[in-house]
């Protein structure tokens, strides 16, 4: 029996809901921050709608995370082309960190990787 492929709409919705909860925001609060309606955000979180890249960018800003992360979750960017390593995933799902702390740790991690990559190629 073939394994069922995960629904990209549902996985994006679950990811967004988790990030919203980690940021301690209600659906209404995040919708207001992003300039979208509560029902529309609810539909996205339940996997019923796929938001446009502009809405994803707005959601990323409201959740204080990189739009690249949401684009990857939505299937807009190829995960092989991003540096979404296990470290980044762990930081993004750590409930003990605030959204700002998660963003800062990921930025630091990525900058360390860029420095090391440039030193390796020199």
Please tell me about this protein's structure.
By secondary structure, the chain is an all-alpha fold. Helices cover 64% and strands 0% of the residues. It contains seven helices and no strands. The longest helix has 23 residues, at 99-121. The mean pLDDT is 81.
Mean pLDDT: 81
Which H/E pattern describes the elements? HHHHHHH
Using the coordinates shown, work out and report the CATH topology. Answer: 434 Repressor (Amino-terminal Domain)
Approximate strand percentage? under 5%
Q: Figure out the total of helices.
A: 7
In short:
The chain has helices at about 10-20, 25-35, 40-45, 55-60, 65-75, 85-90, 100-120.
Chart the SSEs and their pairings.
Layout lengths: L7 H15 L4 H8 L3 H8 L7 H10 L4 H7 L12 H7 L6 H23 L1
Helix pairs in contact: 2-3, 2-4, 4-5, 6-7
List the keywords.
mainly alpha; 434 Repressor (Amino-terminal Domain); 122 residues
